[in-house]
Design a protein that fits this description.
about 170 residues, four-stranded antiparallel sheet, 5 helices, alpha+beta, three-stranded antiparallel sheet, about 30% strand
């Protein structure tokens, strides 16, 4: 829970593309606990399901809040293909929950008590960089591990230029 900071400057050890999913909910009506609490609990259950099977591709996640109404998870994935596979695999929780939401919407039973959203970003290698200073592993660094910043470059432009062994051409 209370991890110690890594002294000095580090950067994420990620090689290849970075796939980031922001997914969350907004409580539109606090009094409608019976509507928004199951949504929140479903997200926690999905994260547990993914944690039990690292082969599904979730590398790491951070739970955040933007306000007393808005909660979200920043997720880092191995690839967009693994993200899509999880989202659509019959028998897994996301597919079941999303199917239930779609059925309620089609039947006119959604009342607007809770909002749902997600954004997905795929940053090709060379299009992202990171730096952490006296920080425990965090964000992409927690998902992919960290290396001393000198391995990738002291300046952002150098870290952007870094290519992994499989992608050494600029």
């Amino acid at each position: 829970m209370f991890t110690k900071p890594i002294p000095g400057r580090t950067t994420a050890a990620r090689e290849g593309d970075a796939v980031v999913l922001l997914i969350g909910m907004r409580i539109n009506h606090f009094w409608a606990v019976h509507q928004w609490l199951p949504v929140m609990l479903s997200m926690f259950r999905m994260l547990k399901e993914l944690a039990r099977d690292p082969g599904r591709g979730l590398l790491g996640r951070i739970l955040l809040t933007a306000s007393p109404r808005t909660y979200y998870v920043v997720q880092y994935w191995e690839s967009k293909e693994k993200l899509y596979a999880y989202a659509s695999e019959v028998g897994l929780l996301h597919h079941k929950v999303w199917g239930a939401v779609n059925r309620k919407e089609k039947a006119g039973k959604l009342r607007g008590h809770v909002g749902l959203w997600h954004e997905t970003y795929i940053a090709p290698e060379g299009s992202y960089e990171s730096i952490y200073f006296d920080m425990p592993q965090f964000g992409l660094g927690a998902a992919a591990g960290t290396v001393p910043v000198e391995r990738r470059g002291r300046y952002a432009k150098d870290r952007f230029a870094h290519r992994g062994a499989d992608n050494s051409a600029p």
